[in-house]
Amino acid sequence: MKIFIDTADINEIKEIAGWGILEGCTTNPTLVSKTGRPFRDCVQDILNIADGPVSGEALSTEAGGMIKEGEEWAKLDPEKVTIKIPMCVEGLKAIKGLSERNIKSNCTLVFSPNQALLAAKAGATFISPFVGRLDDISHTGMDIVADMVELIEYYGLDSKVIAASIRHPLHVVEAARAGAHIATIPYKVLLQMVRHPLTDAGIRKFYEDYKKIPKPGESAKKP
Ligand code: E4P
Question: Nearest residue CA, atom 12 of ligand 1?
């Protein structure tokens, strides 16, 4: 399972890229609005830092407009830019149009295996089921990730499933178990994934015991 970061915050992306584990980045209008910067400037900066796919977003309400927006986004970096297209009839038409133009798409706001099947057939590069938002309304969000992966792999479709709307570290484990091709993870959750109380206690103990070891030429210290 690949790891993307779900943020538009450049400092967060720089930090995680520095860990050597970052394989892509997703944003959305809500995340970009928190930066107070124009969408295009944000995506351009992210492209300069992150390897792998980086998302722009189409906000038109009809397919022609979404395709035009996609063409504009793709000019930034035809290899890395991926256009988020919302799941709807016009979105499906736009995904088809973008795929014919070799522009990558990410079908977003997906909440059912049927929606995923349609997006895959239309030629979506990525499909993003929103796990946390389903959990919020008392559905087990991760079930649809497993269903989507099963359908896509059974029929040999090309789309990759991105487990999105990840809210905590257990979601990441569950996404990996469900066979998600990618998980897009908020910065806070990436930090939580690193930490374990036994690791912290072990590091402290080794450090304390290291200080008790005599340096070359010193006599043995008393325990
Ligand atoms: C995915 O691409 C979306 O940006 C994101 O995961 C949505 O998460 P939220 O439901 O926590 O807003």
Answer: 165
Amino acid at 107: C
Specify the ligand 1 atom closest to the Cα of 26.
2
DSSP 126-185: EEEEBHHHHHHTTS-HHHHHHHHHHHHHHTT---EEEEBS--SHHHHHHHHHTT-SEEEE
Q: In ligand 1, which atom is closest to the CA atom of 27?
A: 4
Ligand 1, atom 10, residue with closest C-alpha: 165
Residue 83 · residue 98 · CB < 8 Å: yes
List all residues whose CB is within 6 A of at least one atom of ligand 1.
Answer: 6, 26, 28, 108, 128, 130, 132-133, 164-165, 184
Q: Which residues pair with 47 in a beta bridge?
A: none
Nearest CA to ligand 1 atom 6: 165
Per-residue pLDDT 10s for the chain (223 aa) are 999 999 999 999 999 999 999 999 999 999 999 999 999 999 999 999 999 999 999 999 999 999 999 999 999 999 999 999 999 999 999 999 999 999 999 999 999 999 999 999 999 999 999 999 999 999 999 999 999 999 999 999 999 999 999 999 999 999 999 999 999 999 999 999 999 999 999 999 999 999 999 988 887 766 6
Q: Let me know if 84 is a catalytic residue.
A: yes
Task: Catalytic residue, from 2, 14, 84, 211: name it.
Answer: 84
